Structures are given as C-alpha cells and as structure tokens.
Amino acid sequence: MSAPSLTPSKAAPPRRNPPRAAGPAPSTGRFAKSLKRNLTAHGFLIGAVLCFAVFSWYPMVREFFLAFQKTDGGTTTWVGLDNLTTVVNDPAFWQAWRNTALFTVLALVLGFAVPFVAAVVINEFHHGQGYLRLLVYLPVMLPPVAAVLLFKYLYDPGYGLLNELFGAVGLPEQQWLQDPDISMLAVVVASTWMNMGGATLIYLAALQGIPGELYEAAELDGAGILRKIWHVTIPQTRLILSLMLLMQVIATMQVFVEPFLLTGGAGPEGSTTTVVYLIYQYAFNFNNYGAAAALGLLLLVLLAGFSAAYVKLSRAEDE
Amino acid sequence: MSTRTLISPAQLARPRGRKLYWVTFAVVVGIFTIAFLGPLYWLVSSGFKDAQEVIQTPPTLVPGSFEPENYSRAWEVMDLASLLFNTLYYAFGALAFQLVFDVAAAYSLSKLRPVLGKAILGMMLATLMIPATVLVVPQYLTVLDVPLIERNLLNSPWAIWLPSVTNAFNIFLLKRFFDSIPKELLDAASMDGARPMRILWSIVLPISRPILGVVSIFAVVGVWKDFLWPMLTLPDPTKQTLNVGIYSLSNGVPVNVLIAALTIASIPTLLIFLVFQRNIMSGLTAGGLKG
User: Fold this and answer.
1) Which residue in the set A58, A141, A145 is minimally distant from B221, CB to CB?
2) Which residue spans of chain B are classified as CATH 1.10.3720.10?
3) CA A101: distance to chain centroid?
4) What's the pLDDT at B282?
5) Are A296 and B137 a contacting pair, CB within 8 Å?
C-alpha cells in the first residue's frame, strides 16, 4: 500500500464550518465539531445498536426476569424461586444433566480428539492435502436436516449401512438410536461427523505454524514420533487446543439439533434428553416460560465460567 | 509446502520410509473418502433408486433401478421450489442487513471512534459469552411482541433478518480488519474533503473485499443451516425454510423421494463451498475461532 505523502495538517484547505449564529469562540467551535463528529459516528452505529438492544440485550435482561416470574394469561407475578424448584424437582432434570454431561464427555473424547489426530495426519502428507481438507469440511456445509436424516438411515437397524458394515467385519448388529445404552454415542458420532471440519482446519493452520527446527532438535535428542507429538506438537498448539476445548464444552453443553432430529429429542427412555431440549419442552410444549428461563439461567451460570476463560484466553492469543 | 513436520525428510527418503508413507497415504485417503464422501454418494445414488431398493439389504452400490423422477417428485410433492425460494430470500436478506449494519458499526467503532464506542463494543462482545440457546426463549417472546414498535414478527422475514444483525463475531472480525487499514490513508481522503460515508465507500470497502467475502459467506451459510430459530419463528408451512420444511414433511413421503429432497437441499451450500473454498478456509483460520 503506497502511503500518500503527508502534508502537514496546517496546509490542509480550511474546512468550511457551518455558519453558527452563536459566538464563534474557539471552544464552542471545537465542541460543535466534536458533537458533529460524534453524531456521524453514532449514526453509523445506530442500526446495529438498535438490533442488539431489541434482540440481544433486552432478551438478556428479560431472561433474568422471566426466571423469577410466572405468566398466566396476561398477568405476570413475581414468584421468586418457584420456577427453580419446579425445574429441579422434575424427574427429567437430573437425567437431562446426566445426558448432557455424557454427551459432552463423549463429544470431547471423539469430537475433540478426532479432528486433532486428523489434522496431525493430514499435515504429514506432501500430497493431496487440499483434497483431504475439502473432504472433512464437506459435511459442515450440509444443511442439518440432510446430514441428520442421512445418519438416521445409516443407523437404521433394518437396512442401515452401519449394521451392514458391522456384519461384514463380524461385529454384532446394534439397535443404535433405539437402544438407550448407545443412543447418545450414536448421536455424538453423527454430530462429530457433521462438525469436525472447522476444528480440523483450524488445527491444520496451527500445525503449519510450528517451526520445523523444533522437530529437528527433538530428533537430535532421539525422540520418536509419539514423543515429538507430546513434546513439540502439543505444547506448540497448546493455546489453540485449550481454546477449542473450551469452545467444544460450551457448544456441546448446548446441543439440541442433533438429538432433536435424530431421536425426536427424548430418545428411548429419555436417554437423549439434553438440558436444552428440556428448555425447549418447557417453553414450547408446556408454555411454561418461567421454568424454561430458570433452567436456562442454570445453564448460563454453569457455562459463564467456561466463557470467561475462553474470552481471557482468546485475548491472550490476540496479543 | 516445504515446512518441516513431524517426520524427518531423511526418514522419508529411505525406501522403507517412502513405502510406509505411500501406504499410510493410501489408507488415510481411502478412509477419508469412504467416511466423508461415502454417505453423500449413498444419498445421491439412493435418490435414483425405487422405494424397494433403498431399504433392501445388502444395499446396492450402483442403483439397479433408475428413477430420476424421484427428484422431480420431491420437487413437486414437498414444494421445494418455494422452500428454496424462502431460504434464499431469508439468507440474502440477512446478508444485506448484516453487510449494511455490521459494516457501518464496525467502521464507526474502528475509525470514527465515538464517545462510549468502547463500552458499546464491549456490550456487543459480551453477547458472545451468553450461551445462544439460553436466549432463544426470551428472544422468541421478543419477536412475538417487539418493544417500542409493538409488532408481532412471527412468520415475517424480519424475524430472521433483524436478529441476524446481532452477530458480534462479524462486527469483531470487520473491526479488526478495519483497524489494520492505515490511518494516513483515511486522513488524506478527509483532507481532500471526503465525508465519512464517502471514505467508507471509496476507500475502506474496496480494501476490505477479502473480509467482506468471508463475512458474506458465513452469513448466507448461517441462515441456510439454522434450524431451531426458523422452526420457532416461521410456523406457517408456506413461509418455512428448506431445513424446517423438509423436516416437517419427512414422515409423509416415501423414503426415496425424501432422500432426493435431501440431496436437492444440500446442493446450494455444497456449491457455495466448492466455489468459495479458498475464502472459507482463509476465513476460518484468519478469523480464528468462532465463538
């Protein structure tokens, strides 16, 4: 970019100030100028700020109030912690949290590790990297109904390809989504397939930033592949890894679409009911917005810590 | 690609190393192709099979029956034309709103620096810390009765367009890019008498083409992929998006027709991806992490 040669600002043509009736004292002039500058600046901001006010900030405040209110018809009453006790005493409450925790743990084992391993492997190849990157990102671009219903067919106990595959290598066929013991695992596998592309590409970019000398040095010390991964690759990508870990936790704790579309939400014996599905049920099936908000607030409190850590870390990465 | 990686070139140069490299390479390419392209192939090819063949075991690799009319039936029975039109309408509307409002806001925060600008940016970024699903319920109630204008936006495209503007991540990306535009350039223009609008239009936007491309793709794909929000705010079947429409009709149509519909619904975003691959990949990594 060729920077234009800078003439001292004194040489700039005098700006035509709008004629002002009141005294042209220099201080008022500066004030008027700054006012005008600010009006312009706020004018550029106003559209976005209004949208945020109505669709983000106001709902944030409202969520808090909703949690302690009950609405019957047109009247709203303050009910204190009633909503919270309703939610906690619901037999589905603990099951939903257990399921969500299970989903998160499974998603960390699969959804966090698989993309990293994939990225490390892809990064070693001197050919076909573009093709492999394209492949892992393809599912990310599918509309969720397409991806999820596709998996519904693959999981079908009657004609599903997965059982076909299991049969071919001599493994017992499974009921997949109909079996309460593995339905959540099935949901996580589908979710990982759908979403791993983004993480893989981010890891690949991080891996490509590792200075090669570090590997050379490790080799001189006699390190094998695994030790190189442990002592060079992982420490060098630590920041990205921890960011992605936090993001993965935050995202998976909020999982909704995959279980909703795959198992109708609850799944066999409620085995795929997640916290967000419960929120959805309270709000949109039972019209109990108060209970939905109370449960939402619990989720918010739980995730706030992770979010704060995420923001702090990503700021560290920025600098 | 000459960056040095995990495995040393010396090891690779040995005959045994080279053999191992190619074997692993073939295995990995094979696994990736089966895992990621396989299901898509199954989707497209099953769309051509008759209803019997789709659920036959073992499945056929190459369709034995050939019914391309499944695709035209899906198109008619599920009214994919109007679902597709709706989705396009919402996606490009949301894109327009985001481009206008988010670019203006980012420009103001980055270059015009208004009073309280830092606080406003902070409050915008704070929304990234609130789990999105927690806000779905109060947002839905807001759409039912928007404060100040007291309107119900249910079944209206505004319910998609306006909330899409509240994308703090986009504003942050744009602002960061605008921050990197040298101040001297803008100062020179304003000395020539250009007003902020003119500076934005003639200097900032042309320089920012790459980031605008990235933001645009994510905006369109975001609406295309969204499910919960359009399901809640667009209950009228004639106003629904592809995702929601296909989902709500999925139980009433034969399997092979539904699969054909899924294939059709996938084509637009896959095309976007194939065409704009480079921008999407650079956006993912340059933009860093999505919150």
Assistant:
1) A141
2) 79-249
3) 16
4) 77
5) yes
Nearest to A127 among B25, B114, B255 (CB): B25
List CB contacts (< 8 A) between A304 and chain B.
129
Rounded distance between C-alpha atoms, residue A272 and residue A187, angstroms: 8
Q: Is residue B32 scored above 80 in pLDDT?
A: yes
Residues 99-158 of B with CB under 8 A from A: 100-102, 104-105, 107-109, 112-115, 117, 120, 123-125, 127-142, 146-148
CATH class of B79-249: mainly alpha
Taking CB atoms and an 8 Å limit, are A257 and B228 in contact across chains? Answer: yes
Cα distance from N-terminal residue to C-terminal residue, chain B: 30
DSSP string, B56-81: -SSPPSS-SS--THHHHHHHHHTTHH
**C-alpha–C-alpha distance, residues A194 and A138, integer Å:** 9
Percent of chain A with pLDDT over 70: 90
Domain residue ranges of chain A, discontinuous segments joined by +:
83-318
Kindly report the pTM of this predicted structure. 0.86
| Cα four-point dihedral sign A163, A272, B131, A105 | negative
| CATH T-level fold of A83-318 | MetI-like fold (1.10.3720)
Q: Tell me how far apart the alpha carbons of residues A315 and A239 are, in angstroms, rounded to a whole number.
A: 11
CB-based contacts of B176: which residues, under 8 Å, 6+ apart?
Answer: none
H, E, C per residue of chain A: CCCCCCCCHHHCCCCCCCCCCCCCCHHHHHHHHHHHHHHHHHHHHHHHHHHHHHHHHHHHHHHHHHCCEEEECCEEEECCCHHHHHHHHCHHHHHHHHHHHHHHHHHHHHHHHHHHHHHHHHHHCCCCHHHHHHHHHHHHHCCHHHHHHHHHHHHCCCCCHHHHHHHHCCCCCCCHHHCCCCHHHHHHHHHHHHHHHHHHHHHHHHHCCCCHHHHHHHHHCCCCHHHHHHHHHHHHCHHHHHHHHHHHHHHHHCCCHHHHHHHCCCCHHHCCCCHHHHHHHHHHHCCCHHHHHHHHHHHHHHHHHHHHHHHHHHHHHHC
Band of pLDDT at residue B103, cut at 50, 70 and 90 = very high
Residues of B in contact with A298 (CB under 8 A): none
| Nearest CA among B1, B265, B144 for reference residue A142 | B265
